[in-house]
Each structure stands twice: as C-alpha cells, then as structure tokens.
Amino acid sequence: MKRFTKFISHRPKFVLLIMTALIIPSLIAYKLTGVNYDILSYLPKDLNSTKGQEILDKDFKNAATGMLILEGTDHDAEVLREKILEVDGVEDVISKSSTLGDMIPQEFLPDDIKDIFYSKDSTLMIVKFSDSSSSIKTMNAIDKIKKIESKQKYLSGISALVKDTKDLIDKETPLYVGLAVALGLIILSLTNESTIVPFVFILTIAYAVIYNFGTNIFLGEISYLTKAIAAVLQLAVTMDYSIFLYHRYVEEKKYCKNKNDAMDIAIQKTISSLFASSLTTFAGFIVLIAMRLGLGKDIGLVMSKGVLIGLLSTIIVLPAMLLVVEKFINKYNHKVLLPEFNKLSEFTINHKKALFAIFIVLFIPAIYGSSHTKLYYNLDRSLPQDLDSIVALNKMKKDYDMASTHFILVKDDLSKSSLDNLISDLKEIDGINSVLSVSSVTGVSLPIDFLPNKLQENFSKGGYQMIMANSKYQTASPEVKNQIKNMKNVINKYDKKGLLTGEAVLTDDLTVISERDFKIVNAISIGVVFLIIAIVFKSIGIPIVLIGAIELAIQINMGIPFYLNQTIPFITSIIIGVIQLGSTIDYSILMTDRFLVEYKQLKDVDKSLKISVKETSKSIVASALSFMAATIGVGMYSKMEIVSTICIFLARGAIISMLVILVLLPAIISISFPLIKNTTKSLKVKEKKNE
C-alpha cells in the first residue's frame, strides 16, 4: 500500500496523464452503450403478461403498436397508410380499408369495426412496428411517420410515449449535470476557504462519472432513468470523499517537509476510513439488485459501481490534481461562511430529554404519513402533458373512449363457437367498448379463407389467435385493475393457457412487483447497513441508535407527500429509502466515531457529545448542503416528474437527515448510552480495565 500511495504522491503529473488518457476509451464506450427507455421491459420474464408480450413481439410483430388518428376521410387515411407502409421499421398498418377494402360504405359496417375505426371527423389506424417499442429502428420509424405530410394526425401508444421520453431525456440530461455542477460549486465555495479546490473536487468526480458510464458497456444497456440521474447521484454521494481527503492533506502539511510527503501520509491515513465510509453507500445501492423489477438491478449496479469508482478516483486522481495545481490553491482563498455551532452543541445536550421525547413522538406522524403516501404507476403521468404522445393519448380517450388496449392470446385450434362466446363475454365486461378479431371481419359475411394472408396473420400466427380489446379505463386505474381481473377469469374459462397482455396489464403486474420490492429492498438495506455498522464499531447498540435516527429522517421525508396531498411515482418509494439510508448514515457514523474517541479520554458522556457536535457539525453541514445542491436544481428544473421527484426527495432527505443528526442524535446517544456501553466491545473492555 505504501508503494502505491508514494507512487501517486510523488509522480502526480504522470498519474494524471494516465488517468486523463483513460477518459478517451471511457467516452467511446459510453457512446456505444445502449439506453432502454421502456420501464415495462424490466418486468420479470416469467410473468404471463411478459410471456404474452414476447409472443406478440416474435410471432405477431405486435409488441410495439401505435394508435394513429387522422382528421380526414377514408381516402386520406388510405393515402397516409400507403406512405407509412414504406417506412423502414413498420410491419403493417391496420385500417378499415386494409381490413374490408374501400367498397363497403361506413353505414354498412359492423358496430365493432365502426366503433374502432371511426369517430366524428377522424379515422383510426393501428400501426405495427417490426421491432420492440424502445428499439432505435422503432424510434426512427416514429420520426419518419411524424414527418409525412398529411392532414392533422396524432400518434399514441407505448412506442410514441417511449420516443417522447427519449427525446426529452436526451435534451435534459446535459442540463442536469450542468445544474448539479454549478450549484455544487456554489455550496463548496461557501463551505471551503479555497476558491480553486471546489473546481478540483468537481473535476475529480467528473473523471469518476466518465469512467463509470464508460464501464456500463459491459452491461450492454442502461435505463433512461439511470442515464438521467446517475451522474447527479454520483456527484452527490461521493463528494464527501474528496472533502475528507483534502482536509487531511491540509492537516498533514503542517507536520511534513514537503507537499508530496504530506499527500502520501494523507492517503495512507484516510484510505481505510474512506473505504469504510463508502461501504454503507455501496450497500445502499447494491441491495437494489434484490428487486424483481430489473430497473432496480440497473440502477443498483451502475450506482454501486459508481461509488467504488468514485472512491478510486478520490485516492488516485484527486491527490495528483491537488499537487499539480497546489500553487493556485494557495493563491486564492476566502473566508468560510459556516458558523462554529457552539450554541448548537450546548442546546442539544441541555435539552436532551425533551429532544429524545420529540424523537420518539415524531415517529408516529412520520410512519403514518409514509405508509399512506399515494403512488401512481401510469408512465404517461410523469411526462409533460404537451408532448405529442400525451396529446394523442388524450384525444384517443376523448374521441374514441379508448384509454388502453388489451391483447388476448388463445390457442388457434379454439373452436369458432368458443371464440365467439369468448368475444361476447369480453364485450360484457365493464369498460370494454370494442373487441377486434378475425370474427370482427368475417362478421361481414366473408369466409375467413377469402381474407388476404397478410390480414389473417395479424390475428392468427404461431399457434395463437390474437384478440384486441379496447378499454375506456386508463392504465393503472382501480377500474382497469378490476377489469383485468375479470378478463383473466373469462379467458381462463375458454382457454386455460390463454394469455392477457398490453400496457395496462403489464402496469398492473408492475404494481404488484413494486409493492413486493419496496418491502424486500428496505428490509435488506436496513439489515446490511446494520451489519456493516455493527462490524465497524463492534457493537449492537450503536447500529440500533444510528439506524433509528436515519429511519426517522427517511420516514419524515417519505411522509411529507401525504400531508401535502401529493401523489408520487412508484419508483420513488422503492429507491429513496435505501439511497437516503446508505448515503446519509455517514453523518451519524462521523459524529459517533468522534464521540467514542472523546469519551474514551474524558469518561463524560455529555462533554464528549458537546465536543463531537462542535467538531463534526461543519463537515456534516457541508456534506449535506453539497448533496442537496447536486440534486435540488435537477428536481426543480426537470420536466419529467419521475426524475424531478426523485431528486427533490434526495435533496430534502439530505437536509432532514442532517437536522436529525445534529439536533436529535446527540440526545439519543446520551439517553441510550447504557445500551451502547453494554453492547460495544471497546467500551466494555475499557470499563473492565478500569475496574
């Protein structure tokens, strides 16, 4: 280890050259890494809904389907249909003309056909894409469809939604990073005496972010949510490492002959504590891989990897960079604007009984609010309502009374009578306003053999018959949930192996999976962090106290939406708790570690706590404010509610955790010290020796 630290500290220019050179392959790899913009694709593959979606994709080329409304006549629709069919990535376009031809007047059409394809002065077409909803080929096809000259048209569906999501994320992500950097620099400048050092910190983390995104190539692809927030999160959770190492370097310079030796010693003395500090943050992210929803694995792997890379960048890039720009650092200094926190340390101990009571009482409204916070699962809600896909979706709801579309797959040898009865029963289900199948067409007295092969393949292929059922109920609504349950019962009546899928069905499964993930992930994260703290401090009482304090902060953070009557995206409830626990538990560890050092010398709990609060407050405040700065700008700016909500929760959570640690934790430690003393190995040994 000494050889390693000496190499870094005594050859800074060479080290910085090597680490800078590594940025080039990292950027290339980043460009080659795919991005998945479809959250529903992260559902487990063993669900019936995902099995059905796979069949639609492989056999029917129907996994990516768009609903296109054209304000015009049948002729206008047919002209547009022919142009769309020429677009690369379009498998087929189903319209009234493609189904029945142009010879049958609208008034002679069956109600099934009329309800599906006509409303007021518009015509509906179903666009089937050849690739998945989030593929580049489908994205390009949607772009080309939008550019086709025609009368006013509206394209909705999951593919259009994904495309708008992609465009928005691609546009906003660079701004997220810019906001995080700008606000981070402001806070670091206010909490640090050097004008130059904040830029060095940010640049060091930039190296780590680029390395992290470059190594994502080994994952094949990452989710759009990970792409949007990973850089911001990495900046927020790894800033502490840079601050800690730099402060130690400044301290060692007072005792060493030259800056290189000072840096050598600083790295050696901080590397173990930096590793221990990063361990809880790493654990907070890595437990996300326990989620059945693949999105958790995606965020968990990228961010846990980012924490480790951030740690390596801190002990390799930061020392080299600090040494190279040393003369500039010393040249530009200013006064630190943080107070001394002397009064706070007195207040917390002098009012410890009252503060401990507040700690206990606050759990009641916090847990109640957290457990009653409303969640939403429909993906379109998180997007700006003026996006093309959302405008089109709303028009579908208004003009066609069609808020969602279900796909039913039954075996192709199902008798005609059973199929007719199945369709008839489906139509009787509340909220189902139209059903499209082969029988919808043959109902015009055309034998099925007379239908074009292409049309037959739209409804029968690979051993399955496909039925489309349109619902007036919105995805993720209680009404559609009950509708899906009834549809499954009807399908099972005629075909035990029949499958039901579509956006609403997938989202319904997403709801069930997410509720399970929330419970599992939070339980595992608490268990893992408890174990880490117990091992570090060789104590049972300390992890109970520290996790109790942070859990109060988490419950307050998650309970606020209930009292503000807000409904939040489902993913927020799953990941915020584990991230806040993993990233802010360090505040309590820092204070507790200092308390134990002081107590072993003074043998006075309250005096030791007063010193601990006074000496650690600046670091805790600086860390929390840096975390908040890195996330609050994104939270306030982002037009995607799922991104803005996550970032606002993280920013608010950092401040709440900070306040709980500074104000309540000293009182909690003081009151519960008998438990801590009797369950902490080092304290028990000390007491025995004194006896």
Report what the structure shows.
It is built from 28 helices and 14 strands. About 70% of the residues lie in helices and about 10% in strands. It has about 700 residues and is α+β, with helices and mostly antiparallel strands. The chain starts with a helix and ends with a helix. The relative contact order is 0.12. The strands form four sheets. Strands 2, 3, 4, 5 and 6 form a five-stranded antiparallel β-sheet that branches. Strands 9, 10, 11, 12 and 13 form a five-stranded antiparallel β-sheet that branches. The chain folds into three domains: about 1-35 and about 165-375 and about 510-690, Multidrug efflux transporter AcrB transmembrane domain (Multidrug efflux transporter AcrB transmembrane fold, Up-down Bundle), CATH 1.20.1640.10; about 50-165, Alpha-Beta Plaits (2-Layer Sandwich), CATH 3.30.70; about 390-510, 2-Layer Sandwich (Alpha-Beta Plaits). A hairpin with a 2-residue loop joins strand 4 and strand 5. Helix 16 packs across helix 23 (about 540-565) and helix 16 packs antiparallel against helix 26 (about 640-670). The longest helix is centred in the C-terminal third of the chain and has 35 residues, at about 505-535.
